[in-house]
């Protein structure tokens, strides 16, 4: 969505929502703590946190490469916008099935408890 921002208020609002996404780390750690038993919870939290950090680093390198590639076809003020849209689309592609098909708690879906 940040690729579509054209005003200062739009930038402030999109930064707010990006902050919410960044704040998902702690709930993710809590979720893995509830989903895994005491013998493996440390490994599960390390795995989830580590892959999350790796994904952020990969996205930074990926977006930089996309911007460089798009600069040959588009002006600079448009190239970065197209480069940002691709990781956003990838995130939504993974988030929607996760939301629809994963369990909320160890006993299954919370509403079915």
Name some characteristics of this structure.
mainly alpha, elongated
General description of the model:
- With 113 residues, the protein is mostly helical.
- 73% of the residues lie in helices and 0% in strands.
- Helix 2 (25-35) runs antiparallel to helix 3 (41-70) and helix 3 runs antiparallel to helix 4.
- The relative contact order is 0.09.
- The model has no long low-confidence stretch (mean pLDDT 83).
Indicate the topology.
Layout: H1 8-22, H2 25-35, H3 41-70, H4 76-101
**Percentage of residues assigned to helices:** over 70%
Mean pLDDT: 83
Instruction: Look at the helices and sheets and give the structural class.
Output: mainly alpha
Low-pLDDT segments, ≥5 res: none
- Gap between N and C termini: 36 Å
Summarize the biggest pleated sheet: none
Total helical elements: 4
Question: What spatial form do the alpha-carbon principal axes imply?
Answer: elongated
Strand elements, count: 0
β-sheet strand percentage: under 5%
